[in-house]
Amino acid sequence: MVVLPRPARTGTPTSPGAAGSAGTVTKWIYSLRTDQLLAWSWLPLFALTAGLSLPSTPTFDRATLAVMSWVFLVSLLHQPLTLLLVYGDKAQFRMRRALFVWTPIVAIPLITAAVLLDLWIIIPIAAVWQLYHTQQQRYGLLRIYARKAKYGSVALDRAVSYVPLAAVIAAVALLPGTAHQLTRFADGLGSDNASEVELLLSARSLLLWVAVPLAVAAVVVLLAYGRQERQAVIAGRANPAKWNYLASSLALLVALMVNPVAGLVAYITAHAIEYVVVVHRTLISRYGTDARGAGGRGLLAFLAGTPLKRVALLVGFFAVFAVIDLQMRGVLPTATYLIIVYSIGLLHFLYDGFIWKSRKPAVASDFGIPATPPAR
Question: What is the DSSP string of 197-226?
Answer without folding.
Answer: HHHHHHTHHHHHHHHHHHHHHHHHHHHHHH
